[in-house]
Records
---
Amino acid sequence: MLDRPELVAPDAPLARRALRALPSVLFYVAVAVIAWFIWPTSLGGCTTLTLVSGHSMEPTYVTGDIVVARCGQPAVGDVIVYAPDEVAGNSRIIHRVVGGTADGWVMQGDNNEFLDPFEPAGDEVLGVARVHIPKVGLVFQTFSNAWVWIAMIALALAMLVWPSKDESDDDLDDDDRDELPSDDGPSDEQRPDTLSPDELSPHELSPHEQSPDEGWDLLGGDRGRAPDRAPELEPSA
């Protein structure tokens, strides 16, 4: 008898595993792209987030806006974020390039009638504005308030301590179960004392425990006692 060749199906489990792993792979890729995009210049990255404060760039940017700047070579007309060496404390300024070269850019705010006293060049330029997110900075300003954080922590603790509805129902069910009678039978206090056969009445004795002289009079005699003698039968005619 010849052996039939077995048909080998495609490796379906491997394909299914690959499909299941695809969302995770896409998630990690997205996280890597976002991390690369927002990695700050202070940590060797190429992104600078600037919270606008003041009126020098109105109406382009107003207080509370966030501007995302990316490293690159600016040109005249670009809005850049720079940190002049002459200002202590690593202060950043976001203004527009109105002239100059890479050796020193001439800067001016859109709402200012005068030029900046600084001409940033080289490492002083942190990045060119790429993304504008209006009013989001107001949220950061709100969360920078200590009382807001205290209120949020108190609310979180209250939510952790306060029992949920399901837990309350479980506690009530436990109390109800404690009040229900046990199925283990009557307790020792409720169980009647065991009586000996001599103390039981004929009605409480089983047929095997009844004496020959006592029992049920099924012929209508006295209950609890057998007849003294059997009834005499009259001869039939």
Note: Residues 215 and 224 are 5 Å apart (CA to CA).
---
Amino acid sequence: MYKVMIIDDEPWSRKVIKQLGDWDKLQLSVIEEAEDGSEGLRLIQELAPDIVVTDMRMPGIDGVELLKALNERHPELKIIVMSGYDDFVYLKQAIRSQAKEYLLKPVDPDELNAALAQCVRELQQAKQISAVSWSTPLIFADTASLNQYLEYRQLIYGYLLDLNADGVGDTLDTLHHFLEGIDAEHFVGSMLNKIGHDFTLMLEEFVATSELEWSQMIPDLELTRSESSDQNSVSETILQIGYMYNQVIAALQGARKNRNKLDMREVLAYISRHYNEAITLESIASYFYISKEHLSRAFKTFNGDNMTDFITHKRMEKAKELIVERKLSIKHAAEMTGYADIAYFYKVFKKHYGFAPGELRKGTE
């Protein structure tokens, strides 16, 4: 389980957060609470939580100072910010500190759990990458090859989260060509066997968070493992990895088609990963194997607004951040939030905020 700490000067607010979180489902545990930033910093140093949920307005060290300190001392921490005020100063500091979410009080349980789920996914990815990184001399003899390998690995994990077999297959093909092109002197020991083992461990960790058992997805896993040896070629190694990943993806897709109830938190998490792409109600419904009418009604009931408005809101928030904080051009901000047509982006932005993106830039200069 990952460890969570809550920092808020109001006892009732800490209690509400503990009641709203799906701690067991997300494999999280609230290990401690703190009443202010000073106590929070001390306890973070002592207990090393993975996720911090913090208020912004507190006596002593407030949220702004706390986020600055955490960014400097504990950059690996996942932070979720809460505030009773829609304050741009607080929002700006939250963005600078790479906070996962800025939640307005009273906190919406769905938004809280979506933010917690995102933190868990990023922690899992970091753990998997770290598991490879510590043993890099045993896999690649040069840093450039290692970094390229890790990029392919992260891409494949992202496709696995989306049960995208085509994406996994295409990236494995690219990894295949990459490994074939490495000079023999850059191979260290049984590199291919270690790569196969690494991808198997990553898959096992992913399966552990799903609704099915490993044996249901890959009944002949031991045979697959026994076939792996130090004498395998690149083609054989990639083929075995692809086989395992396709088996898991197919099993989970089948389970998703046959289950009776849609988990709307999965829908929210999917939107959070893909809002900057050309997703629509139809494409999301197709991904979850339900009708668009059913998805639309379920989303409205669960979230309080329709899905199109929700996606637009997320895109506009991100576009505003990119323009104000990252100083990107309006064209690039549009492209990075899913808008290929900049004229349409201008129209949506002005309708959403009441002013054009160019006026926003002028106001911050």
Note: The chain has three domains: 2-109, 135-258, 262-365.
---
Amino acid sequence: MTTRDLLRANHEKILEQYRSNLEGLLTLQTTLIYDILPSVVDELGLGPDASEWAKQWLEDTSSLFRISRRNNFTRSFAMEAVRKTLIWRFSNLWPVGPSQSMPIMHCLPGWVRDPFGRPILVIKAVSTNGDSGTLKARVIQTFERLRILMKHFVAEETSGPQLPTLQYIILVDLKEFSYKNFNIDLITWIIREVIPRFPGLLAGVFVLNYTWMHGGIWNIVKRILPASALSRVFFPSQEELIRYFTRLALPKDYGGSLPFLTQLDDPLRIHEPPLIIPHKQTSFSPSPSQPPAFSSITSLSPTSLLNPYFGYPISSTHGSPFLHHGRRRKRDLLRTLAVLLWARWRKFVIFGLLIALGTLTFRRGVRKDPLFLRSLMFPQRLIHSWGSRINILS
């Protein structure tokens, strides 16, 4: 199978998966926004700015599709994966600070695509010297910018009948790369920690200017990559590269007819994520002339037959029930289970307690007074005996 045939087959497969799973994906998206997100925000003690920022990510249908696809479109697995990714994003991307550009990466203009309509990225592999923490932060920000740019491309395409663009094609230029620049720890971290947070974003990788000197590096990298990723890494010759992309989709740096890479516009620099500075939530009291917002809210018992979330106390605003989120949800469920258990078994529990109490009383009576057992059989004699003792003492 040629490179074009393989990439065409993968392209058609992912579009068919998107088409067939879109309805379930939109349902999942609603659950994530109105149920999972408030729970995570409450659990982490975050404010409305963080909630709105995370909601924008959850509204990115293509990102949710890629996560669901990684989890074989199993709803429970996808939901848990999104929740973990959401927490990871709060830890690594929030608050949104000044964007740190990576000069080694360049995105060709939006109108330049591969034969199947995918945007093209060019990465010039160079030295990775520098602080490890700074490099990792830049890598994460770069992947986030790629996600945002892809979302922008999808937004531009929604006006037409065609399915959205879901993946990039990457050209990796090894011309200035050498073994002494190789950072295996960083590469391993990217493959195992970052890419799973942005799954399915890359459709294929074309490695350019590959020589025998890079063979040792590739032998190390291919041991880290999964088999599915290995099948999408190509080492084309100049002729094969032009045959796949055509000269109209390549800069002059790689034998194409477009201007040199440094002379082309870069959408990554145009669509940078906005800077967000979280602010403290200020409290306010409603004016006397304006009724409180919660005046129309009614609560339902956890065990009410009208409660769609049986076991959890909910509130209903204008007929739309919603859960109270946070750690107390587990406590609410345990409380409801205890109430149901008591309602079902209370007669047996009370009966058992009475028997246990009677048995304990009987044993203590026998142990303290030898006449106790006989008194049960001969109560008149016991009364006479106790009366005689009282007369002697008096």
Note: The beta strands are 105-107, 120-124, 168-173, 202-208, 233-234, 297-300, 314-317, 320-323.
---
Amino acid sequence: MKKTIKTGMLGLALLTGVAFTTQAQTTDHPSSNDKDGRCPAILLSVGPEANLPLGDFKDVYDWSIGGSVQGDFAILKRDLYATVNAGYANFFAKDDVMGISPNDLQIIPVKAGLKYYPVSNFYVQAQAGAAFLANKSDVGADKSAVFAYTPQVGYLFHLGNGSHLDAGIKFEGYSKFADGGKSNNFLGLRVAYAFGL
């Protein structure tokens, strides 16, 4: 688990470094919204997430709380952005599942994707990557990393002075952590503080 945390911290440090390096090279774009209301060329957001398991996943886990950090980088007229996202989620196990008390599931998802604004401030986003199981031995899983994908819709509220509130609803799916197991799907809500760089 220490190795996973170190890898996550290194990834976050690299993301931050890339964000600041890119900002230094992008002096022609303001960090706050343009007069026409477009988003900044680079947007960094951090915030909490709450999730509700679906299907067979909800038979063992009640809900999840966590958080994530995301970087959005404009690649086409500030309507299309490349995104990178890293986070942490703790899925709380139900007290009694067929006579046993399972352990919580601790997941570190790392994803990249695209975010598109079809109209001002409203976006659709799709990401894919890997979900790392931080407590594999505690939950008896066969795999420590699986494929993850996330479609999301949301709205970027402008707060002024280059600050924003990013609110999104997502469906997230992970492939099987255990051989012969089932995929893990859930609905999530992310509310993040965002700022332009």
Note: Confidence is low (pLDDT under 50) at residues 4-32.
